[in-house]
Write a structure and sequence with these properties.
The protein has 291 residues and is an alpha/beta fold. The chain contains eight helices and 16 strands. It has a domain of 196 residues: P-loop containing nucleotide triphosphate hydrolases (Rossmann fold), CATH 3.40.50.300. The termini are far apart.
Length: 291
């Protein structure tokens, strides 16, 4: 018996949880890249081979990625580009839409495919939409959502999941955010899904930090955090630096951390093109030096 204060408890040892590195490494997946569908992004993740840095060629496979930012920074576009790209490669993928009803969401995906030069018939059977926007039970009961996800993963043999947005699953109950995110994270890891969790930042949060609504609950649990930001040109100096007139917006991209593999640590410029696609540009440090 172990004493703890005035109470005592039975000894409990979970022997199955204790293994050597040699035993565990046998079950570790190979470090591979999963194409993001975003120009300029795939080479920002890397691994080391023979002492040299080598591009991973996309998001680390099986990683759960937190994609966060204030409104109108391109989060949903990035998530959609990922799932459209993966579907076009023949990889069945799930989109959990929490904010937008499925019919409207599907129309957006069709437009995204057009912009990316991908035929709709190449993706229509490989994207599975779970409509949590229209079905209250999926938003309010995490177990129901996970059971539904498990059903879809098994039925369609999916490889990727996006949830847009995970913040909508703990709306008005941010005290439970960490618990909810942890359950979803563990589920996605168990089912070996490369995943993007879109989360919303409050306008009061530091522009390029990974803190989302619900505090650091998301970024501290997931494998990787990507932060999108925007900044308005307000001074002649900024006008000269960015070569944009006062009053225009610039957008920013930053990988805040990744425990799975190496990653670029610079803040990059980001653009949303006339076709509505996100592209990652040069780092701010290079721009400043060039100017």
């Amino acid at each position: 018996m172990y004493g703890y204060g005035d109470e005592a408890r039975e000894r409990e040892i979970v022997e199955a949880s204790v293994k050597t590195l040699k035993e565990e490494i046998k079950y570790a997946p190979e470090l591979e890249g999963v194409s993001s569908g975003v120009k300029g992004l795939d080479d920002l993740f890397f691994k080391i081979e023979d002492g040299e840095r080598k591009s991973l060629g996309g998001y680390p496979k099986y990683a759960v990625i937190n994609l966060t930012g204030i409104p109108d920074t391109g989060k949903s576009l990035m998530a959609e580009q990922f799932i459209v790209k993966q579907a076009s490669l023949g990889n069945p993928s799930i989109a959990v839409t929490v904010e937008t009803p499925a019919d409207y969401y599907s129309a957006g995906l069709k437009e995204r495919a057009k912009s990316m030069g991908i035929k709709f018939e190449d993706i229509e059977d490989n994207i599975i939409i779970i409509d949590a926007a229209s079905y209250h039970s999926l938003r309010e009961n995490i177990q129901t959502l996970l059971d539904t996800l498990a059903y879809a993963i098994k039925k369609y043999k999916t490889k990727n999941v996006i949830i847009d947005s995970i913040t909508g699953l703990y709306e008005a109950k941010e005290v439970l955010a960490r618990q909810i995110v942890r359950r979803i994270y563990n589920f996605l890891k168990k089912w070996h899904q490369t995943s993007i969790l879109v989360s919303q930042k409050r306008g009061s949060h530091e522009e390029i930090s990974a803190e989302a609504a619900g505090g650091y609950a998301v970024s501290h649990i997931v494998d990787c955090s990507i932060v999108l930001g925007k900044k308005m040109i307000m001074t002649p100096y900024e006008e000269k630096l960015y070569k944009k007139p006062v009053g225009e917006l610039i957008r920013l991209f930053y990988i805040d951390g990744c425990r799975v593999c190496g990653h670029d640590t610079k803040v990059h410029l980001m653009e949303i093109t006339e076709k509505g696609l996100v592209e990652i540009k040069e780092p701010l440090s290079k721009l400043r030096k060039f100017r």
